[in-house]
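Quick start: load a record and inspect it. Here is ABC transporter, ATP-binding protein:
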Amino acid sequence: MTGKKLEIESLTKYYGKKENITKALNGISFQVVDSEFIGIMGSSGSGKTTLLNCISTASNPTGGRILLKGQDISKFTRKELENYRGRQMGYLFQNFELIDNMTAAENILLPAAIHNAGRMKHRLKELAVCLDIEDILGKFPSELSGGQKQRAAAARALLLNPEILLADEPTGALDSKNARLLMQKLSDLNREQKATILMVTHDANVASYCSRILFIQDGVIFHQLRKRVPAESRQEFYDRIIAVMAQLGGGSANVL
Ligand SMILES: Nc1ncnc2c1ncn2[C@@H]1O[C@H](COP(=O)(O)OP(=O)(O)OP(=O)(O)O)[C@@H](O)[C@H]1O
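Running the structure step on this input writes:
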């Protein structure tokens, strides 16, 4: 049975005060079940990054609740919070955030060292094979292409088998070929290792790898699309995503 992984309940996040208030999140609610691959789309300023920041606890919401497997994350003890940030959640940044003077393998293994997770040779190998980075494990970030850096960053984010992987525009700094490769790999990890992924993207092509898309506007969900099962093609899903974008933004694929 698929369980509820994440529940977002009437979440609000306001910036500023009174006459100068920005309601970045305005009572957004949704649920993520085990092994879902969710894309979050919306125009600039619609609240996407604020949402990920609240889920990652980088930012405190103004109101509402976030539950991880039924547990309110705002009620976590210091130890639980540490565990949540370090083990239960993985984060993939647009700009990789690898440490320059460490090799790809050392970067990937960093969470295990920080969280005393013991030896992870097998897990490293498994992820390296899946993400096609076996040959570059001994190299430093300056010796890697953008695509290789992001796949190494993905391996690091997934090393400890997090409950949820948060990704904010993970293809934003990649060319289209590397973006496609990363998305193929993330979708393999989602399917084969049941990784639950929540990803912000502006790109309909990138979003077409997801199983569900939430469209956000003014801090709430105004539309969602679910990939049809058993087998809607990526092209068909892409066409439906573009249709929603066109309806909302006047026909341009770049409006969201
Ligand atoms: N630290 C902050 N202080 C004040 N206002 C903020 C802050 N962070 C975000 N905002 C405002 O909150 C709203 C939502 O911002 P957010 O970064 O979540 O949007 P986004 O959908 O991720 O946009 P983009 O696609 O451009 O990255 C915007 O109006 C933004 O100006």
